[in-house]
Design goal:
2 domains; single chain; globular
Length: 189
């Protein structure tokens, strides 16, 4: 079995400050008249969003929410793949791989991981528990970027190795939305 290393989300202050500096310095005056939402996102909306990021958003609060889960990284096909692993309650929880889409992330799953892994805490039956595995796609979140673009078939191969070789599951089920749905469909081949 490949090594599985615990991982904690901890973005350096320098990285956060650099992002905020770039957002603050964006040359809004160079943007033409956007005509509201006609050609994409409204400039007024984007300016307000950027103001919020700089003046109100607290990354450390989000980091703490993420770190309420057990994060890991494991080497698969030349990349360190990040994933959340929440072991389910009960004697024999079914392994469940949940795959996010593009341009999403594992954040999409934060509100469902606990109910899936521990249904008895939410009015369900312990027999319905899953071991929940939520990997970040290569190049997303805290997974290494691939050396060249990966399609859903290659990502499915890597996720299958993560599940079977690295985590040791003989069988598992998978769910995915958007790009994750395409990835999960390749797991059947």
């Amino acid at each position: 079995m490949a090594s599985i290393e615990p991982f904690q989300v901890d973005i350096s202050k320098d990285v956060i400050d650099n992002v905020l500096k770039k957002v603050t310095a964006f040359p809004w005056e160079l943007m033409g008249d956007d005509d509201g939402w006609k050609y994409g996102t409204s400039l007024a909306y984007m300016r307000e969003l950027c103001r919020y990021w700089v003046e109100e958003f607290d990354w450390r609060v989000q980091e703490q929410k993420l770190n309420n889960f057990s994060h890991y990284r494991s080497y698969v096909d030349g990349l360190n793949i990040h994933f959340i692993l929440e072991k389910g309650s009960g004697e024999n929880p079914t392994p469940l791989l949940i795959s996010h889409g593009w341009p999403g992330s594992i954040v999409e799953f934060l509100n469902i991981i606990q109910p899936l892994a521990h249904p008895e805490r939410f009015g369900g039956n312990i027999e319905d528990a899953f071991d929940v595995i939520a990997p970040s796609l290569p190049g997303f979140g805290f997974s290494d970027p691939p050396p060249r673009p990966y399609g859903p078939r290659k990502i499915a191969e890597s996720f299958n190795k993560l599940m079977t070789e690295n985590l040791g599951y003989r069988k598992y089920i998978a769910q995915g939305g958007d790009w994750g749905g395409a990835i999960c469909s390749w797991l059947g081949f």
